[in-house]
Amino acid sequence: MMWIVWGGPTKPGPAWILVGGMAAGMILGALFIMRFQQVEVVERVRTYIFGDKSLELPKPVTPPPPGMAWVKALTTAYCPCVICCEKEHQDWKTSTNRDIRIHPYGIASAHKLVPPGIWLDIPGYGHAMVDDTGGAMRQDAQRGIVHLDLRFEEHQVARRWGRRWTWIALPIDSGAAKLQPEPETTH
Ligand SMILES: [Zn+2]
């Protein structure tokens, strides 16, 4: 019966090589697209398979500044280019109407977790205002993840930032701090 299905006991012919080549090409093409457009997909699969080592990040040893709480956050990076933002930034304005030509650096968040207008210190990035938002941040907020997207001027620099977990001091009354309540401390 199998002979009929497979076209008889023949060796793989040019047709099979063509089909195999096309399949390999599609896989390579998909990987290529993921590499250059959706780096996050690769990272998510890696995190799913191997777990997220960064989640073991030790908490800062000193207490947070007054009125703030340490919150574990996922940071990613973007720039105003079409790959990072599609059409969103082609008018040079953030979601809070801030002109990115004047303010090249800033932070995008899910505003219900991290409100716009506040200034944050992001280790390795700097001191910047929350002035933008994005679908990925809002989606991660639904899953209980505090996700901040950091704005860079250059795409290559944003790419180099990648995806990093870090502890950030956020206002104690923000949605993010309430999401990760601080255990009772004896400081
Ligand atoms: Zn970009």
Structure in words:
This protein has 187 residues and is α/β, with parallel strands linked by helices. It folds into 2 domains: 2-37; 58-179, no CATH class. The chain is built from 7 helices and 6 strands; from the N terminus they run H-H-H-E-H-E-E-E-H-E-H-E-H. Strands 3-4-2-5-1-6 form a 6-stranded mixed sheet. A hairpin with a 3-residue loop joins strand 3 and strand 4. Helix 2 packs across helix 3. The protein is globular and about 75 Å long. The N and C termini lie far apart (76 Å). The model has no long low-confidence stretch (mean pLDDT 84).
Secondary structure topology:
Layout lengths: L1 H5 L7 H24 L1 H12 L17 E11 L3 H4 L21 E2 L10 E4 L3 E7 L2 H8 L4 E5 L3 H7 L2 E8 L3 H5 L8
The protein binds zinc ion.
The site of zinc ion has 7 residues, from α4 and α6.
